[in-house]
Amino acid sequence: MKKISRRAFIKSAAVAGTAFAASPMIFVPKARASYAKKTLIHPNVNNLRVVGVTDPSMTRAAEVGIDWVRQEELVVQKPVWENLDRLACALTDLKNPEQAWQSVFVKPPRKAWSDAVIAIKTNHIARQHTRSAVMSRVCHVFTDVLGVKGSNIHIYDACHGSDLSEETPFKSLPEGVRIEDKWGGSSTSTLVPSPWRGGNDKAKCLKHLVDGSVDILVNISMCKGHSRTYGGFTMTMKNHFGTFSPWPGHQDQALEYLLAINKTEEVLGPMDKKTGNVLYPRQQLCLIDALWASKPGPGGNPTHQPNFLAMGVMSPIVDYVMATRFRGDKMGWPPDMDSLSHFLTEFGYTEADLPNGGKILEI
Hints:
Mean pLDDT: 92
Number of strands: 12
Order of helices and strands: HHEHHHEHEHEEEHEEEHHHEEHHE
Distance between the termini: 20 Å
Strand content: 5-15%
């Protein structure tokens, strides 16, 4: 896939206007831009690449059907951190983990890393949640590698996060990182683009994304089953039912709503109103924690223990490849292809566009 230089990308962001220089926030235009299909979102990484790793050493024993507390006892932090570093290298085609992470995460325009505001969307519904070793590595990359202040990192689930800090008190986080629970919830109305209701209706979203105060969004999801309306699973796309209000996604045009909220500037980043190109990527990493996973869902304890992690930078691509190749081919849980096909077409792609024959690049 065609890549552009960091210098060219930053230059293109600068032409959006002087708002970047005048404000510490990411510019959010009053008139909503419309995402241009097949547009480049991340400047440094092949947007269509999905990388993964299977490693039984990431857990001490094989136990399924167990709760988060017991999973925490079984997870081994060192190989999890090492494998996340290896995935970052595979994603960026770089050998040095520090350089790889510096390529994955793009510094916001006109800001120092120490001033950057990071939001990490975790999935807190029901009983399966992000493991501490996964969450802590991502947070330490921001503080230790990039120089972000711990107090500028916010972990949230705006829908189901009311007891997030109590039920999942993540271990080994950098000092100051904030487990924000619902972080105010999905409280602010914003226009949602097509295909939902013709792009003429609003939904509630997390205020900190609507007002542009969040610079970088990281999406850490589970790997669980769900309604065939959404493809038969819940991963990174549906994770944002805890960023936007989930309720429109349980009514008419449910699939359209799922696709549409993942095309918003709140998720993808500010866009050029004329071209629909993303000027600066807000959601810069999509990571799936499948150390444990489930065929059914979204409730209940995990049914399987794949000891698997995967990542990419473009949510619909990550979900499509994971649904077909991991859940379908590897685990024997075939997705609903009628729904899943829209994950590609709505963003301008076909399966023929995917690198590596549409397979996960396993390391």
